[in-house]
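ok, trying the design again with the full structure, not the truncated one.
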């Protein structure tokens, strides 16, 4: 079996338009949540979101014509991929592009394009629907566009598993390299769903936080929590076969050493309160990685700031690791980025890798009130210096999808 490492990272997030800025702000505990500016929220119960600021998608395309054929979710994916590929320097090596694939997922796809063209069709007739509506709308097109841009013709597919999406793209990319189907995979996720329809839908399924205080909105593990805050952006990592990366002198952020993929088979939106699917996913990733709980460990929790998720995830960690769970440094970076849906697993994989490389645990910010049922170390409010050997990243999605990734520090 091949070893798999991360040799490039790139992202566009509510706290930074590149990986360096995002990580610096994450360590500083910068909150990316504020009042929604993309539409008038007067009639909406939820007023807050974690928007990407000052993003100009045209900067990432070779022509205006190419740019105009893209939905915002594709633009976030392209920006993150360009940064990750450049960071990895993989194109400067003798890489066989037939052995490089693209696994970029999205939970919702081109919903802004769908809304715009539905309005045109209704108000102005079917002839006014864009000829590029379909390729801009379909969920695979971020993957396709990145593949076309770089000429990567290896195993290529999107994943659509709601909030677990890019946990799965990285995990499946890891398996493709581990079992010899590719030498490298551009893996990650993207989402651009801060609009009237999406926000209304999430409000009405009682998933979103309704607080108007940005510092009391995305508050994972806090007793006051009552819903997640919608985020957006894109995040991508370059997965590469270890020996090849070492031979070409690539910078290695972390090694991917475990992956769990399970289903709750319980409910379309609520997690299994017993956490059976999450427990199995964490157990699978830990077993494959050789993690017993005795090691120095960081857990980047799914940590959505919903009552059920945070309680279930805490119980799941205790079930897998027992008393050893109390020694782990845990945090939810969603307290800063909001919930980036299809991109969340990838940005949290990046945070996990950088925590390993730098020996710093990013915080769970705006934590005020302890929940007596949640008694682990959630790294509250301030980053902590800790030299950890392993990182675990959980991503759990609507439909009962569970992904767990395990990373190891490369010494």
């Amino acid at each position: 079996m091949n070893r798999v490492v991360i040799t490039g990272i790139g992202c566009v997030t509510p706290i930074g338009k590149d990986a360096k800025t995002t990580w610096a702000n994450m360590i500083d505990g910068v909150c990316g949540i504020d009042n929604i500016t993309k539409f008038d929220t007067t009639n909406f119960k939820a007023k807050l979101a974690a928007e990407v600021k000052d993003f100009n998608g045209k900067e990432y395309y070779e022509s205006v014509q190419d740019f105009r054929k893209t939905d915002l979710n594709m633009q976030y994916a392209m920006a993150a991929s360009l940064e990750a590929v450049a960071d990895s320097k993989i194109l400067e090596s003798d890489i066989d592009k037939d052995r490089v694939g693209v696994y970029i997922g999205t939970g919702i796809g081109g919903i802004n394009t769908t809304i715009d063209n539905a309005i045109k069709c209704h108000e102005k007739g079917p002839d006014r629907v864009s000829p590029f509506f379909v390729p801009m709308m379909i969920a695979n097109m971020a993957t396709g566009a990145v593949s076309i841009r770089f000429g990567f013709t290896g195993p290529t597919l999107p994943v659509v598993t709601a909030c677990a999406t890019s946990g799965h793209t990285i995990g499946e990319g890891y398996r493709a390299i581990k079992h010899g189907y590719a030498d490298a995979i551009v893996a990650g996720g993207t989402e651009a769903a801060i609009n009237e329809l999406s926000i209304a839908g999430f409000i009405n399924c009682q998933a979103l936080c309704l607080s108007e205080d940005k510092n009391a909105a995305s508050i994972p593990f806090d007793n006051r929590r009552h819903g997640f805050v919608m985020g957006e952006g894109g995040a991508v990592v370059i997965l590469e076969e270890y020996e090849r990366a070492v031979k070409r002198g690539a910078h290695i952020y972390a090694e991917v050493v475990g992956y769990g993929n399970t289903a709750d088979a319980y409910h379309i939106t609520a997690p299994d309160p017993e956490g059976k699917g999450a427990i199995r996913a964490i157990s699978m990733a830990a077993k494959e990685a050789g993690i017993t709980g005795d090691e120095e460990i960081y857990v980047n929790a799914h940590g959505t700031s919903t009552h059920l998720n945070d309680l279930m995830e805490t119980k799941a960690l205790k079930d897998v690791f027992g008393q050893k769970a109390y020694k782990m440094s845990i945090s939810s970076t969603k307290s800063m980025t909001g919930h980036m849906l299809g991109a969340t697993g990838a940005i949290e994989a990046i945070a996990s890798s950088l925590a390993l490389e730098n020996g710093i645990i990013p915080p769970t910010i705006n934590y005020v009130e302890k929940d007596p049922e949640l008694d682990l170390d959630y790294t509250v409010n301030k980053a902590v210096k800790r030299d950890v050997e392993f990182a675990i990243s959980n991503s759990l999605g609507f439909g009962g999808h569970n992904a767990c990734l395990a990373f190891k520090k490369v010494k």
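Keeping the full-length input from now on. Residues 72-88 form the longest helix (17 residues).
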